[in-house]
Fold this sequence. Notes:
By secondary structure, this protein is mainly beta. Among the domains are: 377-465, Immunoglobulin-like (Sandwich), CATH 2.60.40.10; 473-552, Macroglobulin (MG2) domain (Immunoglobulin-like, Sandwich), CATH 2.60.40. Strands 31, 32, 34, 35 and 36 form a five-stranded antiparallel beta sheet that branches.
Amino acid sequence: MRGILFSTIFLLFSISIHAQCWQKIYTGNAGKHSMAIKNDGSLFGWGENVNGQVGDNSTTNRNLPMAVGSHTDWKVLTPNGSHTLGIRTNGELWAWGHNGNGELGNGTNTNSQVPIQIGSSTDWDTISAGAGFSHGIKNDGTLWAWGYGGYNQLGVGGGANLNSPTQVNSSTNWKSVSGGVFSAVAMKSDGSIWQWGNGYYQGAPSGIPVQIGADMDWKMVVHGAEHNLAIKNNGTLWVWGNNLTGQLGDGTSGGTHTGLPKQIGTDNNWALVSAGGAASFGIKTDGTLWAWGNNSYGQLGDGSNTDKYVPTQIGTATDWAEVAAGSYHTFARKSDGTLWATGWNDQGQLGLGITFNTNSFTQISCSGATPVTWLRFDARAIEKSINLVWQTASEQNSAYFEVERSDAPERFIKIGSIPAAGTSSTIITYTFTDNAPLNGNNFYRIKQVDANGQFNYSFIKVTNFTGKRNQAVIVYPVPASTKLQVAITKEMEGKNIRISIRNNEGKLVQQIQKNPGNGAQSITLDVSSLISGLYHITVVSGNEQLSSQFIKK
């Protein structure tokens, strides 16, 4: 066991330089599961999975990214509601998850826990999953619909369910489509926007596509649960639909719905937008991220739970490349390939290994990046410390484990490390003792690092500590050069004292035992032989233990 102690004078932050593996992220405005494609083309899913919508051949909710199938040629995916659609680069259409409304499109109403090919066509171009219904566009520009039709959201002129793709009118110039809860919106190659179903738009309800306004200069359009966002070719932002919680971004909320596109602000540098359950997001051409609307679950990612009624910049980063809004959770990807999540997380939909909410963007690790099979990870408070125990079922090329701690599910710092087994096919148990836990919640995660420097994180474990902590010992000067003074308490006078110094890897580098005698106020240590770096010191006398750290010049 090793107890590594930290004070407030120095923090070590772990930088996930090998977690830059994500190519594309997808989630839905009415769902709690998500899909992502890695740089190698492999597919991963996580979140709610009661209908098999993650696609990993189970109905178990997943709070970490799980590999889905073996294909590495996915072109586009769209998870929403309780099902998922995907198109491979060869033009094949695949689907999985809930199928009670025929939303998978395979002619049945039977759920599937794994991706299944829909028909034999190889000319699918793009797709969109709504809440229980689906749309797809083929290479010839035709639009197709299937699934639940009770709100006229299929656009085929009737309210019946369809369990196989059915063409929507005879137009052959459809370019994109996006489904919500009660309606769908689409754009044609001529720059016009069309909408159908029950919803907040001029002409609703309509069972067939109705043009929204007369403008023909639209660049993109997306559907939230009940609102819409669009960008024109000139980079301006436009909105319409439900505005109950300020998701339109015009400074109002409540019943101020609008049925036609309304410009928001005068900025003309909007690059892309994404609409969620009741929140909106956009990235500008300068790489900044903006959000507005409902924030009750922290889905805006600004560190609060306060709704925003106008577009508000999130943080100061200028390297955001993609944003994907879910029902009440959000993902954003940076240009370096790192993936971040925030918001509602009751089903593990953030993919962070936890099931509690966060209100600031937290990085998702590259699951599967290292060859370690985790069995369990536990943290338990015992008197003055917290004992961590984790097990691996197998390891290959594993170098060491780092223990990280935080007072929240972000801002983790390293508090110690333990050598790994290297290569093993048997169950191995590791233990670590944190002798200076924080008062209140302590969040822990294990960073597994292989011999090549690649790493992966365990899920996060939270433990509440209410016991009496070990006190800190005063050491000076800091930084130290050749001598270090260790202050002792009155209770230690005239008693045997053991002083231990460990390096930042937890290795014992110096230990002395001494009785300072009555009246002594400090003990002098010779640290001239230590190399430069951070060290952790523990002073033990009887049942009393004091800890701190110092920097050696």
